[in-house]
Amino acid sequence: ERVIGLPVKHVVPSDYRAALQALNKGRPLALESGSRLCDAFAAIASDLTGVQLESAADTPKGGSIFGRITGRR
């Protein structure tokens, strides 16, 4: 903040347990609903794209990340 004169927009929490669990399951972290890390990545993606993303908990089973981003089910 001091160097560039702008406030920090996003903070990615250290959630090693969630990352390791997703890795061990072979599932993308984005599908792990309720994870602070997943929520932080979703907030960054939403800010960068200007698209309001749904949370993984709101997506019907079988929904894909592509479907959530594009609104297609």
Description:
The protein has 73 residues and is mainly α. It is built from 3 helices and no strands. The protein is flat. About 8% of the residues have low confidence.
Explain the layout of strands and helices.
Elements: H1 16-25, H2 36-49, H3 65-70
- Shape descriptor: flat
pLDDT averaged over residues? 78
The portion of residues forming beta strands comes to under 5%
Instruction: Indicate the structural class.
Output: mainly alpha
Low-confidence stretches: 56-61
**Got a strand count?**
0
Q: Which terms would index this structure?
A:
73 residues; mainly alpha; flat
Question: Quick gist of this model?
Answer:
By secondary structure, this protein is mainly α. The chain is 41% helix and 0% strand.
